[in-house]
Amino acid sequence: MRHFLDLKDFSTDTLQSILDKGLRMKVTQKSGDGHELPLSGKTVAMIFEKPSTRTRVSFEVGITQLGGTPLVLSASDLQIGRGESIEDTARVLSRYVNAIVIRCYKHETLLTLAKHSSVPVINALTNWSHPCQLMADLMTMIEYHGPLAGQTVAWLGDGNNVAVSWIEAAVRFGFHLRIAGPQRYAPPAGLLAWARANGGDIMLTDDVSLAIDKVQTVVTDVWVSMGADEGSRRKDFAPYQVNAKLMKSAASDAIFMHCLPARRGMEVTAEVIDGPQSAVFDEAENRLHAQKAIMAWCVSGN
Ligand code: CP
Ligand code: NVA
Fold this sequence. Notes:
This protein has 302 residues and is of the alpha/beta class. The protein contains twelve helices and nine strands. The protein has a five-stranded parallel sheet. A four-stranded parallel sheet has the order 2-1-3-4, sandwiched between helices. The mean pLDDT is 97. Norvaline binds at residues 125, 160-162, 221-222, 225-226, 259.
């Protein structure tokens, strides 16, 4: 069963071939040549427990471009909202659809769904990780700076779900990752141990100037993720705001990335996110093409 749950589940070769396909699909789409249709006659269900703009729309459009039929389901409208088990939901949906995309709070929900589903399941964000986002981000890095191995990326702020997928990507693709943020918000220690045991070059620091020095990519994300408490986060993360002064310490051709939605004036200034180094809308666009390649791999095996 070809699920797409987390980047660490895959070999570098498999991930690279999906990225290459996503890059090719982008060219095909833009040239108007017309796509291959690996989802022709197939239906893909999307379950959302949390809000979404990019993920929902890019999957729905992507499924349509690949010849399939998207079915968007709000978790609160399904019987799981009234207590039906995720196991039975997986078994039932597997009888109707050819793949299931899910955005949920608990990573465990995703894993349970995948375990009991007889069709591929794709992780569209959990509290633990956001691998589809990373596939789009990696595509963007390739477009701007070429092959991933050896590149250097600075992640500023919260060690959240997107940071987890960045760590897994750094291990699989051999780029250097510097994570700067307050220690109490560091990514999970177990994941960092896994990364280092698997050859990952991950720097963890609370010194933002150390992290950003001459990097090619600067990335951040909201300080308060969906479902998280704000607490003292605004104050705690303030020194890690990406602003124009900070960007000057990165490489002169550095790009700024953010998965969006962004809070201008919080984790990033308007000057940076709306400035010439910002790649955020290329990144958002690449969600579409990266996910088409992921779905093609899951459903038709190439
Ligand atoms: N980046 C991202 O996943 O955006 P949405 O929450 O809008 O889907
Ligand atoms: N870390 C953010 C990402 C949103 C796409 C969140 O989980 O809310």
